[in-house]
Amino acid sequence: MYVYFKRDAGRFFTRKEFLDFVEKKTLKTIQKYNMLRYDDKIAVAVSGGKDSIALLYVLDKIERAFRTELVIIHVDEGIKGYSDLSPEIIANHAKKLGFKLYQTSFRELFGYSIDDVAELYLKGLVEWEPCSFCGEWRRWALNYLANKAGATVMATAHTLDDFAQTVIINIMRNSLPRLLRFSFSRERPIPGFVPRVYPFLELYEKETALYTHLRDLEHNDEPCPYAEYSMRWDLRMFLYEQEEKHPGLLFNILRFHQNLLDKAGERLIKLGKCIVCGYPTPQRLCRAHFLQRYVDSIVKNEP
Ligand code: SF4
After folding, report:
1. Residue 225: what are its φ and ψ, rounded to 5°?
2. CA 118–ligand 1 middle distance (angstroms)
3. CB distance 74 to 90 below 8 Å
4. Does residue 275 form part of some domain?
5. Ligand 1 atom nearest residue 130's Cα
């Protein structure tokens, strides 16, 4: 019985064929972009959602053949009814797989949860939607945890859909430096950051979701209540519809970005150090600490 039709390849898959396809495609992607080395300590960023749980199990399978060590890193965003469901799920997987787990939260690192920020946003006191804080703080916190774990590399579960969205968002925001900092391999490391790799780069989100479902892996299936406020949400729907009509469109966005990196890459990246944490940044403050101070100033002046 077939479980999946891959439109861009025009091919049906049985359950076994599909699971093999996801695992082999991930391995090929790792090799194609030189993402991992045989003796790496890999920090796998796990949110508890379907994509990151799939990544954990696919990497566990692939990396058994190498001398690599896997650890899990997890950041609690502080979103009631959503992020508070993940820690137990992740702890269960860590125990089952025998991986060490490193955790922290936004509240612990920045003094605020995303629920706190969302409350200010909904009162009209904060200019940017919760996802803007969440994305920056998560990036910082994952790097912090990966450093704490002594990892040589961090693997995240970003899929082809995520990349295409990020490329378009950076174009819409006229943010060329961000677009150029966003690399797929370890060939352009940024000092101070644990290199990030994306083994699901050439898989669709629906494929990683199906993998989790077919393997019957426990995961957090609740939607985030703040997703609808973000630009990414609308864009996700738009790109999804376009990909259905024009299979291969998301890959074209990925290739466009790769060509751009090849042509313009290194020269435009100039980074200093954040005066709070010392992390690389083009400004005086890294974006994560800029946003923390921004919320501090609003809370201080709140009536
Ligand atoms: Fe954070 Fe936005 Fe994702 Fe919710 S949808 S977890 S607020 S980035």
Report:
1. -70, -15
2. 11
3. yes
4. no
5. 7
